Each structure stands twice: as C-alpha cells, then as structure tokens.
Amino acid sequence: LSVKKIASHNSNAKCMIQDVAVDSQLNAYVIGYTTGGGGYCGFGSNIISTVSSPNLLVGKLSSSNNTWEWANDGGINSNYDSIRPALAVGPNGSVYVAGSGLLGKLDNTGSWNWGNSGMGVIGCCGYGYGIDIDSNGNLYTTGESGGDIFVRKTGNAGNHIRTEYAGSSQPDNT
Q1: In whole angstroms, what is the distance from residue 85 CA to residue 103 CA?
Q2: DSSP state letter for 80
Q3: What are 37-81's pLDDT values in tens digits?
Q4: Residue 140, number of CB atoms within 10 A of its CB
Q5: d(CA 12, CA 9)
Q6: DSSP string of 10-22?
Q7: Model confidence over 152-164: pLDDT tens digits?
Q8: Distances (CA, A) of 113 to 50, 84, 103, 158
Q9: What residues form DSSP beta bridges with 41?
C-alpha cells in the first residue's frame, strides 16, 4: 500500500485524518474531519464538502488498485477539537466509527447503516476516543462523558449492552 494524497480545494479547507485501520485484504480505512468552509476534500472522484465545517469524513483506499473506493461524511457540525474520531473494521468490511457524540456503522460500500448520537451516555455529550470489535461482532468503545470515563459494549446493530464508568458522577455500570 502506498501513500495516497487527499486533496484540499480552497485555501481555507483542510482534510484532517486522525485514525487508520487495515482489513484482512490490506485495504486501508481512514477517519478524520474537515475544517474551513467553502471548499472540499477530494478522495479521488469522491468529494466531501467543507461548507458545513467541521464535518466527519470516512474513506476506503483499495489495496488492489491503490484508488479511493469510497468516501462519506457524517454530517456532524460541532467544534472540531471535540470530534476525535476513531474507527474499526469488521470481518465483512463494515466500518464502525466513534467520535463526538456519535457511534455508527457504514457498510462495505461506505453507506451509513445506523448511527447513534450521544453514544447512549449522558444525553448528547459522550466523546468516543477508541473503538474495537470482537469476534461476535460486539463493539467496545472508550471515551468520556460529563467528566467520567467509560467503556461501552454495543451490539452489532447499535443496541446498548453495557457501560462501565469510572469517575465521580455516574454509577459504575448501567
């Protein structure tokens, strides 16, 4: 796999990548966000607008032909300092993302299957910093919410299973 440029178009537009994952076929998946209004981030022929910036972006780079297969955004408009997105790739090419108040799943073509705002923790204000998937398809997300840190277990369809907190304002589990 070689380095591939993500083009910013407009002097104010920036495409920021914050995490990468590789699947068993050596395809690379990236997640980040856009900043700066009035332009776009180009993943080959796939365009992510920066007009409603900051905005989440997710993309897949094919190992077979070194081209961007797809790119998508999350429609998240919030302070980019708090987005801090992370991703994990399932065995069938599904992509799971965590970020500022978001837990979501994209299928292997880059289309959104589901998304949960607030990550189900303390209303709107959960921040997911890390995500992984187990052999049964369950998701494990780490993050913080309201000054507490948490580890959350979520089913493959986005259903909350359990959350463990450490900190001061929440019970230790829900």
Answers
A1: 10
A2: G
A3: 667 778 888 877 766 656 788 999 999 998 999 998 875 444 444
A4: 17
A5: 8
A6: STT-EEEEEEEEE
A7: 899 988 888 998 8
A8: 23, 21, 11, 10
A9: 8, 48
Positive or negative torsion for Cα 136, 102, 149, 160: negative
Query: 137-147, pLDDT tens digit by residue?
Result: 999 999 887 78
Residue 168: both structure tokens together: 């001061």
Q: Binning pLDDT at 50, 70 and 90, where does residue 1 land?
A: very low
Which segments of 23-119 are extended strands (E)?
28-35, 40-43, 46-49, 55-61, 68-73, 86-89, 95-99, 102-106, 112-117
Predicted TM-score (pTM) of the model is 0.82
How far CA 15 is from CA of 59, 75, 92, 146, in Å, comes to: 12, 15, 27, 29
